Amino acid sequence: MNLEILTDVKVKLTDKGRSVFANRSFSKGETVVTGRRVILLPDRTNHSFQVDFDMHIELDEPGRLINHSCSPNTGVRNNQFGAYDFIAMVDIPSGCEITWDYETTEYISIAVPECACGSSNCRLKTRGFKFLSADIREKYGEFIADYLKP
């Protein structure tokens, strides 16, 4: 577990399982969680992170515990640890659940067959970046996996 980060975020048990929450306020553009690659995986899993078209990794905690939302408060940025940083796309108040959109790293997603994010913009399931509309892709701007950028 990424202990130096746990002063800024905390893991709590929710109806979605273990979830990550802000332990302080974060400003838009600030790094909320720095993920580190634990292992390169031979195949995708429901909990793997895609970092290239044919490469999946396991991420350390708390990054691997951040839940999906169709209206997330963080976006991803590739980092020097072979994984992703989760960057605040909006100001995040203390106590708020940290979320990201799985479709910003997964070209084809298998993780959320039925979405329960509760967002007013919920897409009902995640299918992957391949299927995202141009306006949603544009909304994320730089906050998608490098291998998915044009």
| Chain-averaged pLDDT | 94
**What do we call the CATH topology?**
Beta-clip-like
> Architecture, according to CATH?
Beta Complex
Low-confidence stretches: 1-5
Domain count: 1
The oligomeric state of the chains shown is single chain
Number of strands: 10
Morphology call: globular
Tell me the major beta sheet: 3 strands, antiparallel
Tell me the strand percentage band: 25-35%
- Supply the number of helical segments: 1
CATH homologous superfamily classification? SET domain
| Termini gap | 33 Å
In spatial order, strands of the major sheet run 3-9-8
Name of the CATH first level: Mainly Beta
Alpha carbon gyration radius? 14 Å
How do the helices and strands follow one another from N- to C-terminus? EEEEEEEEEEH
- Helical content class: under 10%
Structural class: mainly beta
